Amino acid sequence: MACHVWRLKAGTGADLSSRDRDTYSFVPNLVWLPVQVAKLTDREGSFAQAYLQALAVKIYRSVETPDRFRPTVERAWGKLPIPAGIPDSGLPDPDNLAYFDATDAYTSRRTGVIRTVAAALDDVAAGRPIRSKVVSSRYTSGLQTLSPSDLIELRATLHQILDSKDFDRPSN
């Protein structure tokens, strides 16, 4: 099952990372786990949770980020507490782990979803009705209830991603 590596955000005590726009789909905060293992990581402060967090930091914290995305990435990292108590020597070499490799078809579908959401946000910003379902009916209706500041920020972020030369486009 897909899980969030960090259940709670840093310093909040109760704010869920799964409810934050910066950390919800932040790749270092996502992992696929067997259901029984996933249950162990939902225990706040558990060894399994701290281990996954330390591993995510080891794998992703030093990944180079294009300049235009660095503020977004750093804002997300700033909301996730860095785990203590797991020595780096106790973690596997990231090169020896298995990763999902996105196919061109997968990337094309995800890009299409981003384009659809961006177009819907353009409609909402212009006061036009959304032309068709976006992701799901619930998601579509939710776009129309975004605060003006959230609408502006999400719209700008999606267009920045789509317009970026750093954005991986599938080869067709």
Describe the structure.
- It is globular and about 55 Å long.
- With 172 residues, the chain is mainly α.
- Helix content is 44%, strand content 3%.
- The chain has 2 domains: 2-93, no CATH class; 104-163, no CATH class.
- The chain has helices at residues 35-41, 47-60, 70-78, 104-125, 137-143, 148-163, and strands spanning 2-4, 30-32.
What form results from the Cα inertia axes?
A: globular
Reading the helices and strands in chain order gives: EEHHHHHH
Note the beta-strand portion. Answer: under 5%
Work out the helicity level: 40-55%
Regarding quaternary structure, what we see is single chain
In the predicted model, the low-confidence regions spanning at least 5 consecutive residues are none
Gap from first CA to last CA: 31 Å
Number of strands: 2
The radius of gyration computed from the alpha-carbon positions, rounded to a whole number of angstroms, is 18 Å
Trace the largest sheet across and list its strands. 1-2
Largest sheet: 2 strands, antiparallel
**How many helix segments?**
6
Q: Find the structural class using helix and strand composition.
A: mainly alpha
The tally of domains stands at 2
Structure characteristics:
172 residues; mainly alpha; 2 domains; two-stranded antiparallel sheet; 6 helices; globular
How do you describe this structure in short?
The protein has helices at residues 35-41, 47-60, 70-78, 104-125, 137-143, 148-163, and strands at 2-4, 30-32. The protein is mainly alpha-helical and 172 residues long. The protein starts with a strand and ends in a 9-residue tail after the last helix.
